[in-house]
Specification:
144 residues, alpha+beta, six-stranded antiparallel beta sheet
Length: 144
């Protein structure tokens, strides 16, 4: 019987970076700039591709960035060869519009349970808060 070996942090980073070009991250120009179980950072430059019809960044972009940061962090908080993680719930409060500059979402782990991880995320536009989010990530064993 062979002993299970969890992937290294570097192997998880390489997997994520290798798949990003085929995801919404590539489409929207999102970059993961910090990888850690305690929290990750996702960044992008603001442009019209992120706007809603009123000429401001769509609130869904803030939620997407926050959940992307939390999902990435969750991949470091569990053995991804044994467990899968998926967004279960997200709640965001948008406090200010963004029309230019750069966006930065940082998710921080606040609860580590057996079946769920909870992250708090802030999204900033050039250092000013634009949204706060709470993200619950489900942790489930792979089937079979």
């Amino acid at each position: 019987m062979s002993e299970h070996k969890a992937p290294t942090e570097q192997e998880v980073i390489e997997y994520i970076q290798g798949t990003d070009p085929r995801t919404v991250h590539q489409t929207l120009g999102l970059r993961i700039t910090r990888f850690a179980a305690e929290g990750c950072v996702v960044e992008t430059e603001v442009s019209e591709r992120l706007f809603q019809h009123a000429g401001i960044v769509h609130g869904g972009i803030y939620a997407l960035m926050a959940e992307s940061a939390a999902s990435t962090a969750a991949a470091f908080a569990v053995d991804v060869s044994q467990y899968r993680v998926a967004g279960q719930e997200i709640s965001c409060s948008h406090v200010r519009p963004a029309t230019g500059g750069a966006l930065r979402a940082e998710a921080k782990l606040i609860h580590r349970g057996k079946s769920a991880l909870v992250y708090l995320a802030t999204v900033e536009n050039d250092g000013k808060l634009v949204s706060t989010c709470r993200i619950t990530m489900a942790v489930r064993p792979h089937a079979g």
